[in-house]
Amino acid sequence: MTAFKTKPRYLRLLPGVLLLGGALLVLNATGVVHDAIAQEAAPPTDALAPAPQSANQDFAGGQGQTASAAEVDVLTSLSKRRAAIDAREVEVQTQASILAATETRVDTKIAQLKDLQAQIAALLVQRDAAQEKQVVALVKTYSAMKPQSAAGIFNTLDDSVLLPVAEEMKSDTLAPVLSAMNPDAARKLTIKLASKLALPDTTAMATPAPAAGTPQASSGTPGQTAAPAAAAQPKG
After folding, report:
1. How is residue 69 annotated by DSSP?
2. Residue 152 is assigned to a structural domain of this protein
3. pLDDT tens digits for range 168-203
4. Domain range for residue 98?
5. Angle value at C-alpha 54, between 51 and 56, nearest 5 degrees
6. What confidence score (pLDDT) does residue 22 get?
7. Rg from Cα positions in the chain
């Protein structure tokens, strides 16, 4: 009797249990669908993305290590060496520019000196011509003077003027002037004129010069007293 009474109760609960189980299955299926949709909407993750690197790569381990401490030292040394080479190249270029500018200035100075030398040579030629013209005028003047008057002036003239004038005077004009001059001044003038007329002694040029302290021949030797005769040679 009791079993008969309980059996209808299970039968009455069975549809409710089935409905509850179906509702749970529906809810589970709805959650799975939502998860799938969320996964499709989310950005895909790259499984091959590189792992984050360490802030200090010199001490980072693994295959992603960029350089060891020795390599960093080598790179630093090479960088310093390159900077030194660049600085040296700049210095060499600067020195080359300075040298080129100096050479240009030197060439300019040499050209200026050559021009100045040419100008000086031209001035010397003009001076020699003027002196020769002046000597000719003085010779003409003293030749026209009386021997006593010319002799008085010759006694006081400097050798730089007296010698060129006396050398250009004719012998027949110079002889009376020499005879009227002071004997000592006439002797000195005659000796100097004779030394200018004498040819150089080639044997004396070939022999070595006398040592210091060797006595030299005096200007008053007998061989020099005969010079007035040589000075009296007729001029052309």
Report:
1. H
2. yes
3. 899 888 999 999 999 999 999 889 888 876 555 555
4. 77-126
5. 155
6. 72
7. 64
